[in-house]
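Subject: Protein record for review, amino acid sequence with backbone structure tokens
Why sent: The fold of this protein is of interest and is recorded here as tokens.
Enclosed: The protein record, placed directly beneath this head.
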Amino acid sequence: MKALLAITILGALSAPVFAECPYPAAPSKIPDGATATLQEMLDGQKAIQAYDKAINEYVGCIDKEVSDKIAKAGDSLKPEQRADMEKVEAQKHNAAIDQEQTVADRFNEQVKVFKARTDKK
């Protein structure tokens, strides 16, 4: 009976930890500040804001999912298994935030280019 329980728990833990949390796609296009219209820049800003919201939802989802899996496993979860699950979650969390920051930095650079170009007029 204990062996069956151990196999069941191991199977549950080896399943993808973040299966219910789809990773959001970054905006497909960042407007070029050197040639973009004001509307294109505003549309780009909306896309960045939507991406920020999607990343925040993703991060919240993976945080909750790993917490739920740890709680469900309870005392049957070995400390190293818990640490591994938390490590994977932290890596996914940090990677998502890093990618979001990269996208935001690219957009902000184009905003500077756009402002420099349009402030001259």
